[in-house]
Each structure stands twice: as structure tokens, then as C-alpha cells.
Inverse folding.
């Protein structure tokens, strides 16, 4: 896949997700087969006001290229400046604009999927970011529209392509749907047929087979995996096998999955602080245990983690007492 001047030798993309795709988790996903990763979404206003907490979100790993930075906002002047700052600070290859976030405090402010209510403003934002990004390609992640009575993705995508946007990711839901219902892949297929720039398919990819299906059904250039990666970075290994028509590898044994989780939290503690990393580890570790029988007690213990020592203690208990359903048969 060629996004502007950037070659991405993979069809597998990790979605930018606030509070999830930090540098530590992106690094694990890269190891397991994600070919392109994007930071958590970063506030353009926070960058323009030089907010100290925001700059670390832009940090990329040494092996993390090609990589993108995602910014959100709706003020063209601020978005232009933020694109320049984000590119310079991170060294990212691509700047992505968030036109899809459905969270009320973002969307109701006119940012994220709020831009789908005002296509002229969305285009002004894209033009501004292209100017600010300099030589870096600019991409857009969007939803179908605000609600099912206002499906604007195809019209907006065509306008963005004319302005010089280098690729578009489409999540097959409206803003109002949030994450409910089923993603509509038909619009992704239509968009792929209507544009000459790359289109990345997103929505309801929870297994390797789903990744292969969405690519085949839509003809998209790549698949972006979001919630399907929660606690399961191995979905990239499985997706690669499915896309290549090879046997899909099973998940590693539970003990190995726990070791991966621990490594993620250790990395996060290096990049942030032990305290913040351990608070964030609570949800991640619970995700890693999804589907494991009799894990209730340990999930309760996970919810109290405050130090890496707690992580090690809980992990030892899980390894001692829990097994995968098919282990030991």
C-alpha cells in the first residue's frame, strides 16, 4: 500500500485508540504482525498550547516505522500548527486526522465525528493539516456520517481526495451508532470503487477470519483492527495467516499470554511512570483474561494493581491456578 510517499508493506493496521494504543501496546502489536501503527489521538489545542502531558503521546518506538500520528480538532489554524508540531516532535511518517471519534465530549464540540455535520469545515481542516504537515502525507479516519439519515462519507471522501488527502480509513458505523449494531461494509466497498487513493476498512474485525473477509468483501487496501485487539495482539498473527490463506495459529498458552502482558506493563512503566502504567494495566490485564474460565477472582485482584510487584504477584497466581479450557487435555 502506497500512502503518498510512504510505502507500507502490509495490509494490517492497528487503529488509534485513546487509552489503549500507547507506545508499549503498539510495540507488542508490531512484534506480532501489525505493519502500520498510529498513536492515540492527540488534541490539536493541547499541542498548540504546549501541554506537557500531551507531548509524550507523540513518542514513537525505534522500530515503529512506518507510523502515523493522529490529531483531532476543528479549528483550521490550530490544526495546521498542530500538524507541524506533531510531525516534528514525533518524526512520524504520516499525519492522520480524526473525523470519526463518536465520544460526546469530542463530537458535540465539533471535533472528531462532529466534522461530519459540516463538510466545508471538514475540508478546511484537511487543507490546513496538509499545509502544516509539509512533505508528510495526510490521511483521514472517518465514519459513515452523523446518523443513518446523513450518510456523507462518499461525498466527503471525494472532496478530500481532490484536496490532496493521501488515504482514508472508513469505519462502517455512524456517530449515533457508537459501537452498537453491525458495521456496514457496503459503504467501504463503494468508497474503494469511487476513489483512486488507498481505502482502509474498519469495523467488526474480531478475528483473523474477519480481517480476511473484510478485505475480500470491500476490496480495501488494508484492514484496521480496533477493539478486536483488546487483550489479543495475536490477532495480527492470525489475520496475516488468514489473509495469506495459511492455517491460522492458535493463541499461545495462557502463561505465555500473561508474560506478554507483563512485558507490556514493564515497557509502559519505563515510558510513563509505574503508577500510571499500573492503573492503565488494570483494564488491559482483564482483557488478556477474557474467555479464561474461573478468572473472576484474579480479575478482582487485577482491579487493585498499583505497582509492578502487584502485577508479578497476580501473574504468578494466574499461572499457578488457571488454565486454558483445552490445556492439559
Amino acid at each position: 500500500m502506497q500512502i503518498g510517499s510512504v510505502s507500507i508493506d502490509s495490509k494490517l493496521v492497528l487503529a488509534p485508540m485513546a487509552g489503549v494504543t500507547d507506545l508499549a501496546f503498539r510495540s507488542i502489536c508490531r512484534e506480532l504482525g501489525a505493519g502500520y501503527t498510529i498513536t492515540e489521538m492527540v488534541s490539536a489545542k493541547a499541542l498548540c498550547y504546549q501541554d506537557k502531558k500531551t507531548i509524550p503521546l507523540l513518542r514513537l518506538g525505534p522500530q515503529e516505522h512506518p507510523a502515523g500520528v493522529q490529531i483531532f480538532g476543528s479549528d483550521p489554524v490550530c490544526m495546521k500548527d498542530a500538524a507541524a508540531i506533531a510531525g516534528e516532535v514525533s518524526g512520524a511518517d504520516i499525519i492522520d486526522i480524526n473525523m470519526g471519534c463518536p465520544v460526546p465530549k469530542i463530537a458535540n464540540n465539533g471535533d472528531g465525528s462532529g466534522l461530519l455535520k459540516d463538510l466545508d469545515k471538514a475540508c478546511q481542516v484537511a487543507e490546513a493539516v496538509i499545509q502544516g504537515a509539509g512533505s508528510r502525507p495526510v490521511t483521514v479516519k472517518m465514519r459513515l456520517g452523523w446518523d443513518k439519515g446523513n450518510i456523507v462519507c462518499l461525498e466527503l471522501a471525494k472532496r478530500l481526495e481532490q484536496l490532496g488527502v493521501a488515504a482514508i480509513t472508513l469505519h462502517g458505523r455512524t456517530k449515533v451508532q457508537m459501537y452498537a449494531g453491525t458495521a456496514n461494509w457496503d459503504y467501504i466497498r463503494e468508497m474503494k470503487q469511487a476513489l483512486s487513493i488507498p481505502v482502509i476498512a474498519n469495523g467488526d474485525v474480531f478475528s483473523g477470519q474477519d480481517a480476511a473477509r473484510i478485505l475480500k468483501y470491500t476490496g480495501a487496501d488494508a484492514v484496521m483492527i480496533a477493539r478486536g485487539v483488546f487483550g489479543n495482539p495475536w490477532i495480527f498473527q492470525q489475520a496475516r495467516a488468514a489473509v495469506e490463506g495459511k492455517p491460522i495459529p492458535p493463541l499461545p498458552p495462557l502463561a505465555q499470554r500473561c508474560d506478554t502482558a507483563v512485558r507490556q506493563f514493564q515497557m509502559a512503566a519505563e515510558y510513563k511512570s509505574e503508577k500510571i502504567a499500573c492503573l492503565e494495566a488494570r483494564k488491559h490485564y482483564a482483557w488478556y483474561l477474557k474467555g479464561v474460565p474461573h478468572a473472576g477472582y484474579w480479575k478482582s485482584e487485577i482491579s487493585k494493581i498499583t505497582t509492578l510487584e502487584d502485577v508479578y504477584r497476580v501473574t504468578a497466581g494466574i499461572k499457578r491456578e488457571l488454565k486454558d479450557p483445552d490445556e492439559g487435555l
